[in-house]
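Milestone M4 deliverable, item 7.
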Amino acid sequence: MEAWQHASRFDPAKGKALSWLLTMAHRRAIDRVRASQSSRDRDLAVGVRDFEASRDDVEEPSRSPSNINESLQ
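Output delivered:
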């Protein structure tokens, strides 16, 4: 499809049609790989930003020596 849309850009003096078509396919493939990598990087950045470590909401009482002695008496 892209070849038909940009057929006016082809210049036979610069090379063969097959080379031109393969170059377009190669560039499109690179664009897709880069887009995929960028998407993964964004997802990872958002995931790290939004990550909240699990924690226990129960707070233990202080264990100072005086508290322990009072508890034992």
